[in-house]
Design a protein that fits this description.
With about 375 residues, the protein is mainly alpha-helical. Helices cover about 70% and strands about 5% of the residues. The protein has helices spanning about 10-55, 65-115, 125-215, 220-240, 245-280, 285-290, 295-300, 375-380; strands spanning about 315-320, 330-335, 345-350, 355.
Length: about 375
Amino acid sequence: MSHSRKPFNKQDMKFNNKKLEKTSIIINYTIAVLLCGFLILLTGIVIDDVDEWKEGPSVEQFQNSNLLKEKKLTIKAIDIKIDSKRENKSSVQQTIKVAKNNYVNAKKSFDNWLKARKTVGSPKEDVEVRKRAVKLDNYYSTQQEWEKELSEISDSIKLLNEQRDEVSKLIAKEKSRAYEEQRKAIRQYDVKVFFIRLLIIVPILLLGIFFMLKFRKHKYWPLFFGFVLFSFYAFFFGLVPYLPSYGGYIRYTVGIILIILFGVYAINKIKSFVEQKKNELKISTEERSKKVLTETAEKALDDHMCPSCGKDFIVKDWDKSLGKKGKETILGKVTDFCRFCGLQLFKKCKSCNTKNFAHLPFCCNCGDKLINEEITCSDEMHE
């Protein structure tokens, strides 16, 4: 045996393995999260664009355009008449104003003239007085006629406004009917769009479940895991902004079904694992020792547990000498054989007589093989 080999440093090896393991975990999760994030962004764009695949229902599609056009023309004609009547009304109001002024001025002139005539003779017998009185009456009659015409124009405008209101009510009723039809159509359209989105997301969810069940041990598991995270996010969170009033029932129902399925799967797996362990413990320790994988042995040594039954192989012992403050000190005692299943845990190297974990392939002191070729080959086949 050559002694020029560099001494094996178990602590460095352990440190490097742990550091590499932590780095690998960080890299794997980073890959999974990044892939999940970009898949979410891409799917978000696709889901948003579903609305643009087909134009949504507009209110114009449900309106009686001919009826509305006819009623709007009717309103336009009525408005023209109203505007004409209002212009006429304004003109009559101006005329009445002039007539009133003429009557007031004539009345004032007549009153003044009448007072002056009282000093001359009897106003009742005076022809001029009667003539002026007739003229004043004519002014008053003219004013009354214009006021009557103004009243007729106002009544016409009122009637036209009532007609306009009736037509406007018909237009509003038609539009209200169209809006109600549009709301119904929008609900149906939203249902179609939701199911299109659901038809996109459900296969993604099923594919994610398939990846999780079948590819957990695959060397590209971080990529599959990223897709799994994305599929669950897309179904349970990505669809939230697009869920109709009943959409929550679908999501919660699927969640319940998945929980039941995973629950049944996990319970059966655990039960199968327990049964497998029970059956393994019935096999001889030599046979069980041959089936221990190197990876399992490394983790078992790191966690100080038996690689066969999983129990802690450190036995607590009590030091009868007094420790600090008069308390007894608990010491850890490592046994060569598992006290629960009898599997050999530690053995000495045949070359240097150093005690090693029995299921690791090489001696930690000299580097010679601890496990024979048959067991090593078995390990490689399992790996």
